[in-house]
Design brief:
With 409 residues, the chain is of the alpha+beta class. It has helices spanning 13-25, 42-50, 61-64, 72-81, 84-93, 113-126, 177-185, 243-251, 253-258, 274-287, 303-312, 326-337, 393-408; strands spanning 2-9, 31-34, 55-56, 98-100, 105-108, 130-132, 139-142, 155-158, 163-171, 190-196, 198-201, 214-222, 228-235, 239-241, 262-268, 339-344, 346-348, 354-359, 364-365, 370-371, 377-379. It folds into 2 domains: 2-194 and 351-408, 3-Layer(bba) Sandwich (FAD/NAD(P)-binding domain); 198-348, no CATH class. It has 13 helices and 21 strands. Strand 4 (98-100) and strand 5 form a beta hairpin. The radius of gyration is 26 Å and the shape is elongated. The structure holds flavin-adenine dinucleotide.
Length: 409
């Protein structure tokens, strides 16, 4: 039986951040990470396309939480304790400088996730965190007796190589169904896991053969629901992607799973009402009378998308603005402001994905990230039913939770 003060299950982003902060705060405690892989931090390694999008330059907690479809309410308090500014400072103090990109995403200036991994491994070594690899945890149980004289143990953790006992246990295993099962056996409710952050598969004449085209600012809604988002939209080889779509996939993760990823979306490519657009088209009919509609893209739309929408409006290639009839103008206004597309399936976004689901939010004390069911049991990272849109927010959740665990311990 191996005895440690603190055991952390999972050597990922949250597990390392918790371990380092605990060991730094309480050098007298014996802290061990049990990691099932032969190395840890594998998601950090591949994150952000190998650059690791560490956090996001959003410094107002009430704004930051808006990026969390699950966890918005619960993270507000924690973000007042530790958020983006603290993350930047934490890394800076340990020699890792972060930079902000135009869209607010923050990366190490080296543009390499290895910088973050090296920082964590150095800090862990400096503060004598023990990291036990190839240690897949098979069981967790509560122990009520004093297993060892003068050492109040609360948990027994069965690993690959043997059993561990500890006073305090931190579960930071990400989206691992086996661990969720063990937590259920300890009485915790687990919100059913479903994928979040995915792109929409769409087969439609209007987007075929134009991958790479970006509409800079669109409104998208899922027909028959309240799901709505706005932002850039990218046409891909298999459908649509970019923030307008990814946000919908995150905020609609459960709803879209219930629909088996078959649903309709309505896109307003120009953020105008049908009526306003029609008025504008009437004015263009007058101003551009001799010009060919197909060739004169409007509303800042990319030419290739304009071509597709014009053809979908039954407007032939050679038609001039002056010759448009009322029906064609209505068709065009319809395509520009309320174009309906059928989604049939989903794809992963740049291999990045997160899982919605996990330990029920009502069963976690968000001041400490301690279980409300079992004292001395803590959670951090994706194991809880918290997830975010893309942009560095998922890691920020891991850092914040792990930091508050270290404080509470
Ligand atoms: C390709 C990709 C790119 C991403 N890029 C970004 C990004 O740039 N920015 C961002 O904010 N988010 C990104 N994310 C999301 C982000 O990686 C996760 O939200 C984050 O890693 C969650 O941290 P975590 O510590 O909770 O879980 P993880 O990082 O998944 O770590 C969990 C650890 O627990 C270990 N473990 C699991 N079960 C056991 C067990 N039974 N016994 C022992 N160990 C176990 C695992 O091996 C793993 O090492 C990305 C995700 C993917 C898939």
């Amino acid at each position: 039986m191996i005895v440690r003060d603190i055991i952390i299950i999972g050597g990922g982003a949250a597990g390392f951040f918790a371990a380092i902060n605990i060991a730094e705060r309480y050098p007298e405690l014996k802290v061990a990470i049990l990691e099932r892989g032969k190395v840890g931090l594998q998601k950090v390694k591949i994150s952000g396309g190998g650059r690791c999008n560490v956090t996001h330059a959003e410094f107002v907690p009430s704004e930051l939480v808006l990026n969390y479809p699950r966890g918005e309410k619960e993270l507000l308090g924690p973000f007042h304790q530790f958020m983006t500014g603290d993350t930047i400072e934490w890394f800076e103090k340990r020699g890792v400088e972060l930079k902000i990109e135009d869209d607010g995403r923050m990366f190490p200036i080296t543009d390499s996730s290895q910088t973050i991994i090296d920082c964590f491994l150095n800090e862990a070594q400096k503060h004598k965190v023990e990291i036990i690899y190839n240690e897949s945890v098979k069981n967790i149980s509560l122990i009520s007796v004093k297993e060892i004289e003068n050492f109040d143990c609360n948990f027994k953790v069965e690993g690959q190589s043997g059993n561990f006992i500890c006073k305090k246990l931190v579960v930071a295993t990400g989206s691992n169904p086996k661990i969720w099962k063990l937590l259920e056996e300890l009485g915790h409710r687990i919100a059913h896991p479903v994928p979040s952050l995915f792109t929409f598969n769409i087969k439609d004449e209007r987007i075929i053969d134009i991958p790479g085209v970006v509409a800079q600012n669109v409104d998208v809604k899922v027909v028959g629901t309240d799901l709505f988002s706005e932002g850039p939209l990218l046409i891909t080889h298999v459908g649509m992607s970019a923030p307008a779509i990814l946000k919908l996939s995150a905020f609609g993760a459960n709803e879209l799973a219930n629909r088996h990823y078959k649903f309709q979306i309505e896109i307003n490519f120009i953020k105008q009402s049908f009526e306003d657009c029609l008025e504008n088209l009437k004015a263009l009919k007058h101003h551009l009378a001799r010009k060919i509609v197909f060739k004169s893209a409007q509303f800042d739309l990319p030419k290739r998308l304009w071509h597709k929408l014009v053809l979908a409006s039954n407007i032939d290639l050679e038609i001039r603005w002056a010759d448009l009839n009322r029906q064609q103008m209505e068709n065009l206004s319809n395509q520009l402001t309320q174009a309906v597309f059928q989604v049939d399936g989903k794809s992963t976004f740049k291999e990045e994905f997160v899982t919605a689901g996990g330990v029920h939010l009502k069963e976690v004390n968000f001041k400490t990230f301690e279980s409300k069911l079992h004292k001395n049991l803590f959670f951090a990272g994706e194991v809880i039913n918290v997830d975010a849109v893309t942009g560095g927010f998922n890691f920020q959740n891991a850092w914040t939770g792990a930091y508050l665990v270290s404080k509470a311990i």
